[in-house]
Predict the 3D structure of the following.
Amino acid sequence: MKIYADPITVNCRKVLAGLDLMGAPYELHLVDYFKGEQKSDAYTAINPNQSIPAMVDGDLVLWESNAILQYAADKNGVSSAYPTDLKTRADINRWLLWESSSWFPSCYVYLVENCVKPLLGGAADPAVLAAQDAQFHKLAGILDARLNGRQWIVTDKPTIADIALASPMHLHGWQRLPLDPHPHLRRWLFESVERLPSWDKTWVGEGFTTQRVQKQAA
């Protein structure tokens, strides 16, 4: 599988962390998001949406990050990450659809306002953030209720649903996501997801960097 991605973005990190979770082999082709390489003619021929990531596997060209994870899990036979039981799979699919239609757009507002705009020399718009507040807490409350008494979203192991739902929050501190009223969501993110080796391996930090700064001893 060839994965066309920039590891700094939400949906690219989602795919890379998910593939690492399931141990799926892939070949990374870097598409620099801030240089606009996703709008090049060569990439547009792969994904006419001019968005990343995309996957090419033989004659199959696939975009949409959640679809890539579903395909990779089935291709590699990783049923722990994407169980084949009908009801369990339907539950995971429900969360994947909800993430892309509702959760990602809400979290993305905080990413744009608190991360992207300042990085490009602008400033967050308090009115935009205030307008998103009620929707964010509604959605976060749904996740918080789901995670009450659960370590993972669907099964007793991490699945692609956990990776997908965590990805829009992957810069939560820099995003200034208002997570304090949602203790079960915080516990799942901090104590379960962020301790996954696949999540740590695909780390992204403030400034959209993938390079950790090593602290020097005094």
Remarks:
- The domain at 86-201 is CATH 1.20.1050.10 (Glutathione S-transferase Yfyf (Class Pi); Chain A, domain 2).
